[in-house]
Amino acid sequence: MTKFYELSRHQRLRQLVQTGALAPESADFLATKPALADEILTAMTENDLGQFVLPYGVGANFLIDGQDYYVPMVTEEPSVVAAASNGAQRVKQGGGFKTIAVEHLILAQIILTAVTDFADLQQRLQKVDQQIFTVAAQAHPSMVKRGGGLRSWQVTPVGADQAKISLWLDPQAAFGANFANTVAESVAEYLQQQMLVADEQVLAAILSNSGAKMYVTVQAEIPWSALATSTLSGAIVAARIAQLNQFSQQDAERACTENKGILNGVFAAALATGNDLRAISAATTAWLIERQQLVLSQWQNLPADRLLRGKLTIPLPIGQVGGAINSLPTAMISQELLQQPTVEQLMSIIASVGLANNLAALRSLVTTGIQAGHMRLQAANLAILAGAQPAEIELLTALLNQEHRLDLAKAQLILQQLRQQKR
Length: 423
Ligand code: MEV
What we know:
With 423 residues, this protein is of the alpha+beta class. 50% of the residues lie in helices and 20% in strands. It has 16 helices and ten strands. Helix 6 (129-139) crosses helix 8, helix 10 crosses helix 13 (343-366) and helix 14 (370-385) runs antiparallel to helix 15 (390-401). It is globular, with a radius of gyration of 25 Å. (R)-mevalonate is lined by residues 77, 257-258, 260-261, 264, 361-362, 365, 370. Residues 77, 257-258, 260-261, 264, 361-362, 365, 370 line the site of (R)-mevalonate.
């Protein structure tokens, strides 16, 4: 049977329609008119000049919490989707990705200055506990109607004379940035007018991107048999992957590269589903700093069970609705491809892609090295760079793939030879 990645784009779309993963209209949209309509473009940015287009692909072989997925991914790096599918296929042989923990609450902060008596402030706040919940509910009644809203709050001293009120909010399926900011500003205004005394002042009220309670842990157990190469046993590959991850846990220069490999998958899936990559990036940085941790994933070789276990915990400040998601038609198609997941399922899916990319990268690094696979996928890019016309790209890519080492000069030379042969 022809593999999914060997099909043409139209065959792939047809297969997704036939299996019910995609509505015919969505497949037609992807094939013919994925550009944003003028009205959307103008509404989404100031000073719009046009569109910046990136490839939209799907990672294959994903089995997550017992459900099969094609995961939409948007990225400019040619090897990322292939690596995700490769990692996912190995994880599938061990039963797929499993969600170990997931939480989806957003934090908002009210920052107070000139707090001279913290204990007194704390007592006064306790007295208006009910009012804080009432003001929060009144600030966003539609969220309360959907089952969301303020879940808890606490006040903490910061430095000599500042304090923060932390509001923990349930944004339901949304990321909840607007919701959190609206509630924080309303509660801040109430406190400023009704409760603060002397010089106490609200300095600012804003959501936090910390992701401390908006994170997911996914795990994968890969049998040694799914890791072997033509020259190395699965046992050796598993041991080497665990060793390389162990190295990252102690070396920031390597850890940041391993994290980048994880974010390759996370960002591609988050972007395809219309989510905010800067929020994920900021949350991840804070997460690692707070835990004094260098690398996001942990890989453990378990000889008694003849398997390799990988675990990724990552803050994912994302939504399944709201933000840009509903304005971007292709983001809506992504949600369709993922069978309209809950926000928690979407978090597990995005994290699984990160872990899949991590596995594929580590396995390549400790076996053949990264360049072999990368260069094969870079060949098409190189063909374009060398000046190949659309009708020449496929043949030139195939010829480049037969070469041992690739560079632009060689690609240009082969293209020249190809054109001469045609004359
Ligand atoms: C390349 O985009 C990502 C890798 O460098 C990740 C890693 O080194 O773990 C291959």
